[in-house]
Here is the input.
Amino acid sequence: MVEDRLSPHVCGDPPGEARRLHTLHDAAFGGPSAAGTPREVITASWHRSLAAGVDPGVDGAPLVYEPEMIGDARSGHPLDRYLPLLRGTLRTMADLAAHLMVITDGDGHILWSEGPDAVRRKADAVGLAEGFCWSEGSVGTNGIGTALAARRPSYVYSAEHLARVLHHWSCAAAPISDPDSGRIVGCVDISATIRELHPATVALSEATARLTEAQLALDMHARDDRLRARYHRHLTGTGALVTPTGRILAGGDGTRFAGRLMIPEHGGALILPDGRPAIAESMGEIFLLRALSPVSDRPLLTLRVLGDLPTAWLDGRQIPISPRHAELLTLLALNPKGLTADQFSHHLYGDEGNPVTLRCEIHRLRAQLGGVVSAKPYRLDCDIDADVVTVRRLLAGGEANPAAQLYRGPLLPRSESPAIRAERDELSARLRRLLIWRGGADALWAYVQTESGRDDLEVLDRLATVLPPADPRVVSVRLRQTRLVN
Here is the structure.
């Protein structure tokens, strides 16, 4: 609920209320003392703003996005698809009255604004326009920044603004939270000069934010249902399907998880709220969580070897690996039953391989990883979470979309190992074929961002047919098609 000691025009004397607030502002910042104090929410905001170094004499908000950058900021923002809903709710007031409709991201950067030209000209003078930042730390107390800082609907009237240049303005704003992550992703604001601010703006801004959150929740639940249907067959008795934001979508018969979990960015080991160890395995769009026995002391090796810059983590601790060690670990992950010295040497070097050279490489690898690498045969004596293994399994099950989301590029693209080259070519070919046959728009788009798919005309043609005509990605696809054809 909005703190309601003062709602716009409730006092019946807006100019008189503005004068009173000017007196309080002057008293707070070096003028003669005055009776009364600002509202508690305003006093708290002034303190935060001053602590951030904002000067009451600031002349407006700072620019953070140049005009040529604002399009990218909009298209990549989660509220972009809900703009028709926001416009439809707020536009009537912005068009029929002297009000400005503003929508920001979670940091207070204005991404969209609409309103009469006369109001926009006045707003431009103080940076109340697209591309400018209205956080408390940038321009002091204001409807947008205070709503984001307090995480609740707020209004700021006249001289309640910290910056004197804003004392002719008033605004009502409400934050918009993402039900998936719990983060504030934006803010809706209605601004006007103090004589024009309509009493309904406070309720309207809050209602618009809540309506948008409700639509976000509906879309989230539809996405959850799709993910459950796609991945439910992977569940085991003590497993669970978990979103990257830690929400539990489904659990096996023996699963008793509660609340939101903290999933490592790349998956891997974690401790559940009840103290049990678990492993989160990335499936591209979702994680498959497996609870482990508390007595298990097997380490977890996490490998990311698709695309450039291979990386490895041992029990959540990143370990440096050379290109050669990345090859060794990849071959071991792809051969869980183990390899003899002769087999390993042939996989790594081909017919010219020498087991003696291989043993030297393995010795250096074991010195770095301890007992994770066993001998006779050579194998990984640990739990393994490798992106190449997961993508291989997803492709075997015909699951093109999650495989494409996890596929960040060719397997160790600089490796000359015969076995890795063969796996690299097969993986890329299988994924490409499956995407052309049944890939969705997001999966195809993810693939054409990789080295394998960037200049693949057939995949681009398929993507062009499945993208909606109004999708902003269509322009990029058409440009690439033209470049490749010409």
Observations:
- Residues 14-219 form a domain with the Beta-Lactamase fold (CATH 3.30.450.40).
- The radius of gyration is 29 Å.
- The longest strand covers residues 184-193.
